[in-house]
Amino acid sequence: MPSPYDFGSFDRRTLLRGAVGLGLAGVWPAAAAEPAKVEFKSNPFTLGVASGDPSPDGFVLWTRLAPEPLKARGGMTIHPVDVTIEIADDPAMSRIVRTTQETARLELAHSVHAEIDGLAPGRDYFYRFRAGDAESPIGRARTLPTPGETPAELRFAAAGCQQWEGGYYSAWRAIAEDRLDLVFHYGDYIYENASHAADAKGKAFPRTLPKDFPICYTLTDYRRRYALYKTDPDLQAAHASCPFLVSFDDHEVANNWAGDSDPAATPPAAFLFRRAMALQAWYEHMPVRRAQIPHGPDVLAYRGFSFGTLADIAVLDTRQYRSRQACGDGFLTDCTEADAADRSMLGAAQEQWLAARLKDNRGIWQVLAQQVLFAPFDWRGIPWIKPADKPVRNMDSWDGASAARRRLMAMLADADVANPVVLTGDMHKACAFELMRGDAVAGVEFLSTSISSGGDGVAAPDYLPTLQANNPHLKFFSDQRGYTRHVVTPKLWQADFRALDSIATPGQAAKTVKTLVIEAGRPGLAPG
User: Can you give the pLDDT at residue 28?
Assistant: First the structure.
């Protein structure tokens, strides 16, 4: 094996990955090696607290010290800081069951990812952080059930697409109040765009980025963007309410990126540096485990969770390993490249991992939690789609890699999966699809609308009849903002589509606008 310093023996990609990855290899500046005793002049917990990636005996606890969150270093010095974590079995934190300590370092933006284990399965815990004399808010976490247990119920939300400018995060407040077991965040946690006051049609945004926020390219750019988003009190409330299973889509890096490329045709050697910085910032701000520490531009984002024998959840990654968008991307009518047999959304290694997981796990419900529309979809009727006499497909969705979709459907059949459910986002619409294998219903896809991206919409747009006529497997569609709440039992899956009348003003209430159910063993949708 070549020496890591023998640059002549590396290709350009290997050199890039190694060079970027050195910053995460545990090499800290000598001057800042020892944690310092600190006294904060202002609250260092401005970004809140979070839990994530639960297991039957624990979870990850997250925070980031940032007394001045929008500054390049969050208002912190170069010195490491010891952070104490307290865990209790009551919300008043009067019965402390565990105390541990982590060191927050500048190299990871003074973020903390405490991996907690040794706790009891299937129960609530409460936690807080201390740094110096400062104390964080209290958060609620929850362990997964015992592996062989069949819980009576799983309650969770699926949500994402939360562009800051689009509107207020009232949907996150509603999620916090739902008292859930977990949240699946499908991605687009941030948007990488520059500050601007109005949308493409000239309509003023409900709120805007600070004027000194450019398009994100550098690590500092991405860190400041996450910091701004995380100052939102409604988002903080949701994170503090229950564990999150987080993924990422495109806007955490660049719009419609795919593998080692972006739509601007940036050379891979340059784009991968940007991707590395973006994914480091993602890790620094998400409640994920050390297994998700990026190595240069690579991060192991796909992973699995078992909610006892009730539900097995595979969190997928449809960005890092996908083929570049067919025919140059876009919404197209004729693109034979999209149907090529070698095109992929997951990459070979992830496909193999998923196929093995589907065969090995026998949860009553098999959940594929991912980012972009899985079902075939004809976009004709959407106002900004040019009129066409053939189906219009989105090359950034699974329609741009139809062979990959067929392979996944074959995996489900080979594993004899009785109750497959696909969770999706990205479209800024609320949708429910029946997934077809020939003329038979083989599964269901629930697509959650955006938290704020796209601004206010309407429940039943004028173009809906055209969409329904061209997409008979589409069983629900709405253009309002909100999220989807799922209540799962051994016999029934209930999806409540939750919407807000407006996100232009803060504090709006969420309401259920549609409920659909699936009966276990009968993979189709029915009114709830």
Answer: 39
Contact 181, 56 (CB under 8 A): no
Choose among 138, 137, 173: nearest CA to 157: 173
Contact (CB, 8 A) for 65 and 74: yes
Query: What's the average model confidence in pLDDT over 133-148?
Result: 97
Residue 17: pLDDT above 50?
Answer: no
Phi, psi dihedrals of residue 105, rounded to the nearest 5°:
-125, 150
* pLDDT score, position 33: 63
∠ CA(224), CA(230), CA(234), 5° rounding?
A: 155
Sequence-separated (6 or more) residues with CB below 8 Å from residue 27: none
Two tokens at 82? Answer: 């010891």
The mean per-residue pLDDT over the stretch 499-505 comes to: 97
- Give the separation between CA 213 and CA 228, rounded to whole angstroms: 10
CA distance 24 to 9: 22
Per DSSP, the three-state class of 458 is coil
Rg (CA), the chain: 23
**Tokens matching residue 517:** 């159910």
Residue that the structure tokens 């936690």 belong to:
127
Residue type (1 letter), 349: A
* pLDDT, tens digit, 9 for 90 and up, residues 339-390: 999 999 999 999 999 999 999 988 999 999 999 999 999 999 999 999 999 9
Specify the residue for token string 């927050």: 104
The alpha carbon of 222 is separated from its chain's Cα centroid by a whole number of angstroms, namely 16
- pLDDT per position as a tens digit, 40-87: 999 999 999 999 999 999 999 999 999 999 999 999 999 999 999 999
Q: Which of 282, 350, 357, 348 is nearest to 313 (CA)?
A: 357
Cα gap 453→203, rounded to integer Å: 14
The domains of the chain, with CATH numbers, are: 34-142 (2.60.40.380), 155-217+231-248+298-527 (3.60.21.70)
**pLDDT at position 1:** 36
Tokens 């973020």 belong to which residue? 111
How much is the pTM? 0.94
Nearest in space to 433 (alpha carbons), one of 528, 523, 318 = 523
| Count of Cβ atoms closer than 10 Å to residue 267 Cβ | 10
Question: Do the beta carbons of residue 20 and residue 297 sit within 8 Å?
Answer: yes
- What is the rounded distance in angstroms from the CA atom of residue 496 to the CA atom of residue 485? 5
Q: Which residues contact 115 (CB under 8 A, 6 or more apart)?
A: 58, 60, 289, 290
219's CB contacts (< 8 A; 6+ apart) are 277, 280, 281
Query: What are the tens digits of pLDDT across the range 286-343?
Result: 999 999 999 999 999 999 999 999 999 999 999 999 999 999 999 999 999 999 999 9
Determine contact, residues 61/86, Cβ cutoff 8 Å.
no
Residue type, 47: L
User: How far, in Å, CA of 174 to CA of 424, rounded?
Assistant: 20
Q: By the 8 A CB rule, do 87 and 126 touch?
A: yes
Instruction: Pick 442 or 33 by higher pLDDT.
Output: 442
Predicted confidence at residue 114, as pLDDT, reads 98
